[in-house]
Design brief:
Distance between the termini: 46 Å
Number of helices: 7
Mean pLDDT: 95
Radius of gyration: 23 Å
Number of strands: 31
Length: about 550
């Protein structure tokens, strides 16, 4: 896990690495205004956090240091500063709205890179290769950070069950720190689309990604905002060691943050809003849980102190293994949290396992993006009014959280048969997937959760607290020591009415209350189809 270097160390005479400064003509004017607001009114890193103020001494220090930065400023383009950076270097961005005109003007599907298209394991070349991005860095991205040189040739066609990066070369931009120099993340904005929309929609995207960090081991991105990308605000992939903190993402069409096959990651003190898929998405987080090949299990990704709100899903993670989420506020989404194997094709790590959700507040997830006139364009089907679901996953622990005011359900757990994911046994399709088996959902535990009541003790019931489709053969799922809106275990509402509390003996024998029919009916119709109840806002629960 990379450590943060303080802003005030950026101009030290004997630094580890050099610092490049990016600024605009009005950066100091913006800085002074932001400092005054931080002194007089304060600022919030996220809506659910306390307001932060800076005192007069800190204010003067920040202004004085930014004056020094301004004297060192040689760039008005973040990409240009990244291009001259190397291992252990820093890019400090002074206050402003950065649209990166040269990157915007770079062609998409650039003919200059057509010879670098590579087929994936499905014979498609739509996902562009690392070599492609190295030569055409702004084809898709406003700011592109390619952390490694090229190594050996890539095997074509690629191996089905592969580990590691086959063509990884030496580090050339590893341990890079990219940061804003203002008092808060609001002061540096990287906008990949319609600037006039501010922190709202419409997106009006020009580029797919605002910041792409590819094979950028040790990357730190902090104290800035990304918005209006056609896909992701921040995209970290094939990276070992990343730290994203004090950041905000507004109305990026798919995700505020997407990480993919990346290890040793931390996301903290953040806000993710307006995503068509989910706010944060650590896709295919590594196999460090119950399928690990290491000496012992560990959590590879930690997410804490974030507000995930007003997205189709607050958090999502297809085949995202061993992710630890704690002390987050997840609210005003259609579905607060989803981990799944629905779209496992193209995601290593099947089946998903070993997430830990604890000490989160997951509430009021009743936003309906499927209604006409919504400001978020949904890209995935989700059950409006749901706190969380595990849509095919194993060995997940959900403990000591608050779930309240989710009008459909607090939590959902169900299996996804392998036959829904792969049509033929591996290796031709997905490693570990066998259409004759049901690899999910087993060994999931829900305990110590407070359901239907706020942290201050006010009753705010969920439609149902717990919902389970007890697929035949699903083993060792259990619910115990949870309390309902009356503060007692007797206050829990669930379907089925009696849930197994003994993990060792729990065994699914088939749903008899319409659970399976609901699932089949909803996954077999187009997104938004009125025949599926998921896309309709449930009534507010009484009580």
């Amino acid at each position: 896990m990379p450590k943060t270097r303080s802003l005030f160390s950026a101009l030290e005479t004997k630094p580890v690495g050099k610092t490049s400064v990016v600024c605009q003509g009005d950066s100091m004017k913006r800085l002074r205004k932001a400092v005054k607001v931080a002194e007089d009114e304060g600022y919030k890193l996220r809506p659910a956090s306390s307001r932060k103020f800076i005192g007069p001494e800190k204010a003067q220090d920040l202004i004085a240091f930014n004056k020094k930065l301004a004297k060192k400023c040689k760039f008005d383009s973040i990409q240009d500063a990244v291009d001259v950076s190397g291992n252990n270097d820093r890019v400090v961005i002074m206050p402003g709205i950065y649209t990166e005109p040269e990157s915007r003007a770079a062609p998409t599907n650039d003919p200059a890179c057509v010879d670098l298209l590579e087929d994936n394991d499905e014979g498609s070349s739509s996902a562009l290769s690392y070599r492609y991005h190295l030569k055409c860095p702004n084809d898709q991205s406003l700011v592109n950070i390619s952390g490694r040189a090229l190594g050996g040739p890539v095997k074509q066609p690629p191996l089905q069950d592969r580990h590691g990066i086959p063509d990884a070369g030496a580090c050339v931009k590893c341990n890079l720190q990219l940061e804003g120099s203002g008092p808060s993340p609001n002061d540096v904005v990287i906008d990949a689309g319609r600037v006039e929309s501010g922190n709202a929609g419409p997106v009006g995207a020009v580029k797919d990604v605002a910041i792409r960090a590819d094979r950028a081991d040790g990357i730190v991105i902090r104290n800035l905002t990304t918005r209006h990308a056609d896909e992701h605000g921040i995209y970290v992939l094939e990276t070992d060691g990343y730290r994203l903190e004090r950041f905000k993402g507004f109305f990026n069409a798919d995700y505020a943050v997407l990480t993919f096959v990346s290890d040793h990651g931390l996301m903290q003190k953040c806000e993710a809003v307006g995503s068509g898929d989910s706010g944060l998405y650590p896709g295919a987080a590594p196999e460090t849980g119950e399928q690990t090949i290491e000496a012992k299990r560990r959590y590879n990704t930690e997410i804490r102190y974030c507000d995930l709100r007003h997205n189709t899903a607050g958090y999502s993670g297809t085949d995202a293994n061993a992710v630890w989420l704690h002390h987050n506020n997840i609210y005003d989404n259609a579905n607060g949290f989803t981990t799944d194997v629905f779209t496992a094709s193209g995601h290593p790590g099947f089946p998903e396992d070993s997430d830990l959700l604890e000490k989160n507040k997951i509430y009021s997830n009743n936003f309906n993006p499927y209604q006409p006139g919504t400001d978020v364009d949904p890209t995935v089907p989700m059950p409006v009014g749901t706190g969380m679901w595990i849509a095919g996953g194993n060995n997940n622990v959900v403990r000591n959280n608050w779930f309240f005011d989710n009008w459909r359900r607090g939590t959902m757990l169900f299996a996804v048969p392998d036959s829904f994911i792969c049509t033929v046994p591996d290796p031709p399709d997905i490693p570990g997937c066998d259409p004759a088996k049901v690899s999910t959902s087993h060994r999931n535990q829900f305990y110590g959760n407070k359901m239907g009541v706020t942290p201050k003790g006010k009753k705010r019931p969920n439609g149902l607290d717990f919902w389970w489709d007890p697929w035949v053969g699903n083993a060792n799922n259990c619910w115990f020591k949870n309390t309902g809106a009356n503060g007692k275990q007797s206050g829990i509402t669930s379907l089925p009415a009696a849930l197994p509390s003994d993990c060792a003996t729990s065994l699914g024998t088939g749903g008899t209350d319409g659970q399976t029919a609901e699932l089949i009916g909803c996954v077999s119709v187009p997104q938004g189809d009125p025949s599926c109840p998921w896309f309709m806002t449930p009534p507010r629960p009484s009580g």
